[in-house]
Amino acid sequence: MKEFNNLKDALSFLQQQINSSLKEEISDLTVKTLQENMQKEVYDVYQPKKYDRAGYQGGLIDPSNIEVKLDGNTLSLESMRPDGERNVAEIVETGQGYTYNFEYAGKPRPFTDTTREELRESNKLIHSMKNGLHKRGIKTD
Question: pTM for the whole thing?
Answer without folding.
Answer: 0.90
